[in-house]
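Worked example 4.2. Below are the chains of a multi-component assembly; read each line carefully before continuing.
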Amino acid sequence: MWWRSASFILDQRHLQEDPPNDIASSSSKQPPDTLSSLSPPQTQNSTFMATAADPFNPIPNPKISAYYQTRAAHTAVVTSDWLAQAQAAVGHHPDDAQAAQTHQPLLAASPSSGKSFCVINEFNNWRKQPDLAEAVAAIRALAAVIRASEATTMMELEIELKKASDSLKSWDTTSISLTAGCDLFMRYVTRTSALEYEDFNSARSRLIERAEKFGEISCKARRIIAMLSQDFIFDGCTILVHGFSRVVLEVLKTAAQNKKLFRVFCTEGRPDRTGLRLSNELAKLDVPVKLLIDSAVAYTMDEVDMVFVGADGVVESGGIINMMGTYQIALVAHSMNKPVYVAAESYKFARLYPLDQKDMAPALRPIDFGVPIPSKVEVERSARDYTPPQYLTLLFTDLGVLTPSVVSDELIQLYL
Amino acid sequence: MDSRRASRTVSDPKIRQVGFFAPPPDRTFSGPPDPISTSTPNPATTTTTAANSPSSPPISDLSPTGNSLPPVMIPPPRHSSDTTHRLVPSPLRRDTLSLTVGSNNNNISSSPSGGFDLTAVKASSVPASGLTTVSVLKTLPPGFTETIVEKVGGSVEMQNDLPANSKPLKERTSKAERRALQEAQRAAKAAAKAEGSKLPATTSGAAASANVKPAKATKPSSQKNDSATVASSEKKGGDRPPEKDRKKDAPHPRMQYDDKSRVEKAKRRAVVKQTEARNRVELFRHLPQYEHGTQLPDLESKFFQLDPVHPVVYKVGLQYISGDISGGNARCIAMLQAFQEAIKDYSTPDEKTVTRDLTAKINSYVSFLNECRPLSISMGNAIRFLKNRIAKLPLTLSESEAKAFLQSDIEQFINEKIILADKVIVKHAVTKIRDGDVLLTYGSSSAVEMILLHAHELGKQFRVVIVDSRPKLEGQLLLRRLVGKGLSCTYANINAVSYIMHEVTRVFLGASSVLSNGTVYSRVGTACVAMVAHEFRVPVLVCCEAYKFHERVQLDSICSNELGDPDAISKVPGREDINYLDGCTNSENLQLLNLIYDATPSDYVSMIVTDYGMVPPTSVPVIVREYCRDQVWI
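Applying the procedure described above to all two chains together yields the following structure tokens:
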């Protein structure tokens, strides 16, 4: 599906606009468009040190899924332990940036140091960039595997790649976009008959080229989605947003830049209060924002013109898996005939088909109720739910604006 | 050949028209502006307009009638008989077309070679015993099988000596005969051209072949006829069944049985003599329905007259009638294996090419099987596959090579599209069974049975609810096998489905076919179960091999269906006390409806498990598009 990405709608000038994130720019002194250069910025950002110190044991606390940890690190979840971690992180920055600078030429100079190369380390390094989605980080890491590989035959390289992607996938089995990103990469990079007729070196460089292109498209995906969705945001509309999604933020940011007049209702997003962060970001853009507690969705729904949500994964039925609460919002919106729009990059398309809520690997998270909970009381700690396709109106993806049923079409074309 | 093909594409652009439309007036007919006859020339009409005929284009391809005829062959001059016929308000324009052709060929018709009779190939379908999704493969009663075996050898010679004594020789050659002659000539020409022989091909070749068997009324020429048309149509390679040859005399497999004149015609030609059931339900008059129990002895007695039908095919046909083979996969496999046998024993007659003659043979087998019991969509797909393979046989192959080639192709189709596909389906579907599940299934589906057994072997803890219905009660068979394997089962009749559904967590259903709009065409009652499950928010999983997918769209269960024996529902076997209907079954105002299939709307289906993975019902057209090129599963 990548070969027909809708990236043409991206103007050249929009390419520049990707706002460089402060951490990314401070740690690696590269402009954002060189992200696909040879080696990742080695930011030893210690926000994640606690959990990612041992890359092979990503779940120090088995009660919290790796998926949730990643999410917390990425969307800057406002919890008390996050604050503590963030504080601890501040001090380390200059050193890490230095380390990155020194480490980088080293890696570039010895691309054949394959023995010490570890795809998970690579992945974690890429992942430190807050603006880089997990799947894109995985794609970058796999591209690095090709580069660092010492294989001498195509088969060897493919096996190596397969191994790397498997280890990435098993590193965090609960993350849909990671798995989907790895699978997509494997299909995109290796699915070509032309590879069989070339000699190894040119085939390998072709693979690398494809990997770069793939990473690039993935990076641009968010911009494409933002552009595509502009037609759907009209002046005077009220948008309900659930949780924090970087794509949705990009969409709203672009709308604000286009001088659209709209207001946003943000749900609180208990328990990690991701909605608070989104409302912060939107307030900075001078977009009128109203915060709701999660249970006020139905109460406010009649004022709402459309619901915008992101997605952790888009499954084969065309439904989405997203932060807990999306399903009920979609249900309320559906019963009040409000459109529900999903913004999701196509690397989140996954070959999964949950039949109901329990039919997927649960991603657990801690929930802070503020008061001690008696041990006899059970707590539902799942972090996400599944919204069936009949409650979704449209999906904004970098392949274009799709109805839910097209997702399966794309997946079949890609995987079968 | 090539030049003809080219001209065809030019003169006949591939147009698909959907819905109701007014076709441009045809140049061929100058007769009165009868709306029906004017619409005839349009190639797209029959295939697409449900209004004209609910006939399915794909199925029609199976029969000799479905083969296309180059436009050149349709002659403009009208015969006087045409007009009269066209004025008859026949819902199908095939009549009129055939008439035109026949009249056109009048001059040729006097040739003796053309004498043949389509009767044997006529299709008046038998409502066989109900179609089930179970694979039941019983052997015929031993005595019967033996007879067949003994007679195999004899039957072949018989056919040549079997002249017109079964039919009185006709004074005047029929349209079909004339047509056959024409086809023969064409075939001869083609053969001559292909071999590069210097023969003044056309007439002499035909005459030669014709003279060999002057009085031979029935089979051979009909085969020739079929083969020629088939070959020509297949050469064109299009998936569009061109109307023009549709008009051949053989009834369409989806014939409209409420059209009296056509039914009469078809009956005259039918091998399998069926008695029509009397009171048919108004809405379903277009479907064939016959009294049951009469065909078997009749067919048996006719064994020696059915020359074109290979004994193995004959046996399979009888098994269809008697209901010994039922269930989509079982029927399809039995048919393919019979064709395999037939191909093994096949030898090309002189002056014929394998491609053509074999296709004709297969066509005649197919129409025979269709008479025994209407073909299922899956069988239609399999036949299309086989015909496509035959048509694509390289000319360089020798006969034995070609036969081996085809046999291995059939073998491969059975293995890949049915057996392996089932394994893949089982693999996928098992992932959706969790410990503690209560699985409901309806009737008896071979795929579902395999899934349940496999899940049990994997040690999953689950319970099965088998819902069953009169009159076939095939669920009991499944129940027996599952209980035998130690699964814990609940058995309920479909009346109890709304009660039992609340404890169910998954519904697994089999399907006879899945159509392009996601509609699941399956055992009658499936739609009811799926609807109740949907109301209870229980996921419905339909397990169906991809070779059963079809690009047709069907919105209801009426236009294409099969009628079972009405007695099956009016009587309860073994319950003499339930005799309320005794004596009124023949009453004018009682209509008994025993439907075999129904259509489940895609809304009620959560997922379709196929060999290409688990897909939503909306993705059926995607799979058909991607994997079913030219309507042939690859």
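Take a moment to check your reading of the output against the notes. Chain A touches chain B at residues 316-318, 351, 353, 355-356, 358-359, 389, 405, 408-409, 412-413, 415-416 (CB under 8 Å). The radius of gyration of chain A is 21 Å.
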